[in-house]
Amino acid sequence: MIRKQDYGFHLIKQLAKSVTDSEQVEKLANDIPQIKQLDENLHDKAIIMITINSAIIESFRDRPEIINF
Length: 69
What we know:
Layout: E1 2-4, E2 9-19, H1 22-31, H2 34-38, E3 47-57, E4 65-68
Antiparallel strand pairs: 1-2, 2-3, 3-4
């Protein structure tokens, strides 16, 4: 579990993957065109993919809220 208390939320579950192989980076960029909007030159770049399944949003005024994606 990762806690990011500075922003008032806690990640409950996460799955992270790092893509560094040039061919895999290019294939992923072709599958998801928004990646190339960030940078057209993907040479020597890595892509970190993070999947968040749920989060807890905490507030000092209200009860914590669990959000499932």
